[in-house]
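dude i think i finally got it to work??
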Amino acid sequence: MLAIRLQRTGRKHEPTFRVVLTDSKNGPKSGKYLENLGWYDTRLKNKPEQLKIEEIKQWMAKGAKLSLTLHNYLVSQKIIEGKKLNALPKKSPIKKGEVSKETITKAVVTETELILPKGVEAIVKKIPIKDPSILPTL
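look at this
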């Protein structure tokens, strides 16, 4: 499947990007692309004239997918219609020994003890609660 995405070309601490059409299986740092569709510089006030807008729309009509960052840029420049998409990661990885927020919210809390659900390797301990405001709300 074809993808239209940003490919970094700038020096260290000077990011500039090419807008390229590439196969989605190619990595972003491989340097392989089928067609150069413009450029984007994060340090400048970018203009829509830097991109080949007609060619981008043609490739989108043929089935090429936009990267999330490029989609958000095109929406903000009013080149395409739609809402901006969240390009940030959905969840952070769980580290060993750390209890996730879901586990805490699923926990049954009483005034004298904290009982963790099954699947969490923890021992049920009797904990005196002096300040109930520190407990998570269920």
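The longest strand covers residues 16-23.
im so relieved honestly
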